[in-house]
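Quick one, tokens below. Sequence please?
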């Protein structure tokens, strides 16, 4: 079956309602039953309870729940309660984030216009848009939102803004004619689409699709079928948690066996093994990561980036490809005059002066032959015409004053057949008709040309010169309007028959220019090892011109159109994308395929956009970035991050923040695991030597839940550095457990274990005082881990640098932890609770000294191993 834009109005009428007449009430009822109501439908959503329960599916969480249950059965209710409280808090945080995220379809529904004017039973009726059905004839005027997709029946200079669907900034002029070739959505000039709106003129169309069958409906389907991606940190933490849990459980099982073999009661041996597992598994890790990411979002919000999904903070730091929409993202989404061409000379808009007679004459003509207005800073009218008004304001010429001085006497409105607009005015030089329009049409009607203030015959050389200039403008993606005038003394009314024998005045070129900061942002993007890619619904020439200006495009071969993608399989597209930097005339399906192709090649992809057409790709991307000012609600809801200033450069700041946050989270994890490993080594040493266990279960819980958490959070808030942007993005498949990461954990844990067991042996002494030995080991391990927070600030030595003192949160965590552990070992009232004894002053100093010794030893190890680990 032929597409609707390939068919005549008669063919379309017969296909959709079987006759040439408007629908009757009976036909409306039949069609609504057959095609459904004109509304978007939602898929089945998960309940909040389902989302909450899914938070417990994590392998590490399941292990902890088992440990809590066993602890409860064995009488250690306190341990069981603590474990369950921690994992429940994590589950609540995860549920809140998920519930807030899924709102895309609700915003898509708001795109439907509330009311529509349709022709039914031979009369015009105003009905709710959800009742519009296939076969309805809809009447349109300027300002109307289009309720459904359809074929144009009549167009009186009607222009439609389809930017939300196609990404093209200019309104499209609609026509009734049949289109012969296969064309993309943005070029289907005899069709209109739901979600767009009329900016100029009037017309009518025959509805050919409603609800989920419209282009907006297809986008809704794509959103429902597009899965959100886990960030690299989420994937790594999942894998890491499973591996760590298995290793720790295996170790605890071995330790349980050794203790039983050594003759200890089975219940005590099992309780200690459970306590050690709880201490070794960093169950607070998820909470710490969430808190660190939350602080990261606050910092980014101050810099213009609102984070909708916490994990996006870290994900941004791993981005290797940024696929950006053009209109409103890299450009200003506002047509702007670039050049004047007058009297055979081309002038940049920056150097124009109203004192120059020729330039002032062209400026005056462009303001008078225009219907656009700017009221209180708001534009009304066609974007190309409002650009002319803004040019006047830039040259300190008021459009209102010019129009008041030279009022319009008569006009011939623009239409798509003539491609011209003419107005009649009494100028200082006499009654004059001013005409603007397409250059190819106007040049055929010119007989004279203005040069040096005089009118000369229009020669073939003049024509060649003007066409050469026009070609230059076109090749650079500029939209060109030609202007001419004609003396009309004594004429009161003009008509299309008068549009001939003109004097050529000049050309004005304009475009939607790049944002000033875009070039620098693209440069930084490339330096940081990321590939910027432009994906737009605009024309290839225009897109390529913008991409060249901002540094995305180096060679014309790196630009292509969406139709080229249609010819490629998914596998072929994966090879194709590497060599392409600009995609023009693309559909929402193309955008998703491009994003997927990069992802299949192992890249973390960010997609920026502001239109409805961007929403599915924003959701498919690892990080979706929507524009806060020009962006539709649909694009915002589908995104992970919203830019409040619509500034592409803010994305680069966000990437820098993301990379820093990830580094800080890694340092927090390293701090937790090296401390935990130190505790495990101490226990293993005691078990192998058949010594009493160095820690009571309550000691391990105290360390894990109190003295560890605050320094770990403080490390996550470490001040950011710009050095992270000198590295390439982290590979998607790179695990947290890299070789150098494990070596650092091992060596640092070994040092902490050595200091802890030295304190233990000093307390155990010749008198074999088990309680004193446990107290000194517990106090030393606690204090060592507080000191170790400063070791974990960086993988390089920081002891003699400014970085050592730059984190006030870490200093606060250290002081609070030190006060807590000192109180536990020195206040008699706490001894029974924490199973310790009072330390003498000399013993307390030994604990402090051994703990502090961790700092120079580990800092020295960092200096020695830094080059080796590189």
């Amino acid at each position: 079956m032929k597409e609707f834009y390939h068919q005549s109005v008669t063919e379309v009428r017969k296909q959709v309602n079987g006759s040439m007449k408007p629908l009757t009430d009976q036909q409306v009822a039949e069609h609504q039953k057959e095609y459904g109501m004109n509304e978007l439908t939602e898929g089945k959503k998960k309940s909040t309870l389902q989302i909450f329960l899914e938070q417990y599916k994590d392998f590490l969480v399941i292990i902890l729940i088992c440990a809590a249950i066993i602890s409860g059965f064995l009488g250690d209710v306190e341990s069981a309660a603590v474990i369950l409280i921690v994992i429940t808090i994590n589950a609540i945080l995860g549920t809140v984030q998920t519930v807030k995220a899924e709102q895309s379809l609700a915003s898509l529904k708001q795109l439907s216009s509330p009311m529509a004017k349709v022709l039914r039973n031979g009369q015009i009726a105003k009905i709710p848009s959800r009742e519009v059905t296939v076969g309805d004839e809809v009447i349109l005027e300027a300002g109307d939102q289009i309720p459904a997709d359809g074929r144009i029946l009549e167009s009186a200079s009607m222009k439609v803004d389809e930017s939300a669907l196609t990404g093209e900034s200019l309104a499209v002029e609609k026509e009734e004619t049949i289109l012969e070739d296969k064309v993309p959505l943005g070029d289907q000039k005899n069709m209109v689409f739901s979600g767009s709106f009329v900016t100029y003129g009037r017309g009518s169309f025959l509805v050919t699709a409603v609800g989920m069958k419209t282009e907006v409906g297809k986008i809704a389907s794509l959103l429902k079928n597009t899965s959100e991606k886990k960030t690299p940190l989420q994937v790594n933490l999942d894998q890491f948690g499973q591996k760590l849990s298995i290793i720790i459980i295996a170790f605890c099982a071995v330790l349980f066996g050794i203790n039983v073999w050594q003759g200890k009661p089975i219940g005590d041996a099992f309780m200690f093994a459970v306590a050690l597992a709880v201490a070794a598994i960093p169950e607070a890790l998820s909470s710490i990561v969430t808190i660190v990411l939350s602080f990261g979002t606050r910092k980014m919000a101050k810099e213009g980036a609102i984070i909708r999904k916490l994990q996006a903070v870290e994900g941004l730091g791993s981005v290797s490809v940024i696929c950006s929409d053009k209109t409103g993202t890299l450009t200003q989404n506002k047509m702007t005059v670039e050049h004047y061409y007058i009297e055979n000379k081309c002038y940049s808009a920056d150097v124009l002066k109203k004192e120059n007679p020729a330039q002032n004459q062209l400026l005056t003509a462009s303001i008078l032959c225009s219907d656009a207005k700017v009221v209180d800073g708001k534009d009304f009218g066609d974007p190309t015409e409002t650009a002319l008004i803004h040019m006047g304001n830039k040259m300190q010429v008021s459009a209102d004053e010019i129009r008041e001085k030279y009022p319009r006497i008569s006009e011939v409105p623009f239409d798509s057949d003539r491609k011209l607009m003419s107005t009649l005015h009494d100028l200082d030089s006499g009654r004059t008709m001013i005409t603007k329009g397409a250059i190819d049409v106007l040049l055929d009607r010119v007989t004279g040309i203005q040069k040096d203030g005089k009118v000369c015959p229009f020669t073939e050389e003049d024509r060649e010169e003007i066409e050469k200039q026009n070609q230059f403008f076109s090749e650079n993606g500029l939209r060109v309007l030609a202007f001419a005038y004609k003396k009309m003394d004594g004429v009161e009314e003009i008509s299309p028959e008068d549009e001939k024998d003109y004097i050529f005045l000049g050309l004005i070129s304009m475009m939607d220019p790049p944002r000033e900061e875009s070039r620098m942002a693209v440069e930084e993007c490339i330096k940081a090892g990321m590939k910027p890619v432009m994906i737009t619904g605009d024309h290839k020439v225009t897109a390529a011109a913008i991409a060249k200006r901002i540094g995305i495009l180096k060679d014309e071969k790196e630009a292509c159109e969406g139709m080229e993608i249609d010819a490629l399989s998914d596998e072929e597209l994966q090879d194709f994308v590497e060599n392409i930097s600009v995609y023009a005339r693309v559909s929402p399906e193309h955008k998703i395929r491009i994003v997927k192709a990069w992802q299949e090649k192992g890249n973390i992809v960010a997609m920026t956009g502001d239109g409805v057409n961007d929403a599915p790709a924003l959701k498919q991307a690892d990080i979706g970035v929507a524009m806060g000012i020009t962006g539709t609600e649909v694009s915002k809801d589908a995104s992970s991050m919203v830019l409040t200033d619509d500034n592409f450069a803010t994305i680069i700041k966000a990437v820098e923040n993301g990379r820093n946050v990830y580094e800080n989270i890694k340092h927090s994890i390293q701090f937790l695991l090296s401390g935990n490993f130190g505790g495990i080594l101490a226990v293993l040493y005691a078990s192998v030597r058949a010594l009493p266990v160095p820690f009571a279960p309550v000691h391990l819980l105290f360390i894990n839940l109190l003295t560890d958490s605050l320094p770990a959070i403080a490390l996550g808030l470490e001040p950011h550095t710009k050095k992270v942007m000198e590295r390439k993005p982290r590979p998607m498949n790179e695990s947290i457990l890299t070789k150098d990461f494990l070596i650092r954990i091992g060596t640092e844990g070994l040092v902490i274990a050595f200091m802890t067991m030295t304190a233990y042996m000093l307390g155990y002494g010749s008198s074999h005082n088990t309680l004193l030995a446990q107290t000194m080991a517990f106090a030393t391990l606690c204090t060592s881990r507080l000191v170790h927070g400063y070791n974990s600030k960086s993988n390089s030595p920081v002891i003699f640098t400014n970085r050592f003192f730059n984190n006030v949160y870490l200093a606060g965590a250290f002081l609070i932890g030190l006060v807590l552990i000192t109180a536990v070992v020195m206040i008699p009232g706490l001894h029974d609770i924490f199973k310790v004894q009072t330390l003498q002053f000399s013993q307390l100093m030994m604990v402090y000294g051994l703990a502090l010794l961790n700092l120079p030893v580990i800092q020295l190890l960092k200096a020695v191993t830094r080059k080796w680990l590189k």
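The radius of gyration is 36 Å. Residues 648-688 form the longest helix (41 residues).
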